[in-house]
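Protocol check, entry for the methods section draft. Step 1: assemble the input record (protein sequence plus ligand SMILES). Step 2: submit for complex structure prediction. Step 3: store the structure tokens unaltered in the notebook. Ligand used here: zinc ion. Step 1 record:
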Amino acid sequence: MKTSCDKYAVGCYGLTPEQLNRCLRIQDGRCGICRRKRPYRLLVDYDHEANEVLGLLCRQCKPIKDHVVSTGLSPFEFFRRLRAISLLSRRKARG
Ligand SMILES: [Zn+2]
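Step 3, stored output:
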């Protein structure tokens, strides 16, 4: 699977290819929420206050996440939990 930054350049918020590739590697090229691979470029979810990349989301999940944030849960905490969940599910999948 090609994971060059070029494909993700729009909406990168000036991210380096290393930052993007790290996100893709953490998420296995999948959406950070639904864990599905999408035929289109994932959206970069960026915390402007913390000035950091939170993850990559598909077009379905980004609005959901924005909604979650609007309920008061911090984006950082939200994604920290998501990563923990995804790591667990990956271990299960690999036995
Ligand atoms: Zn998704």
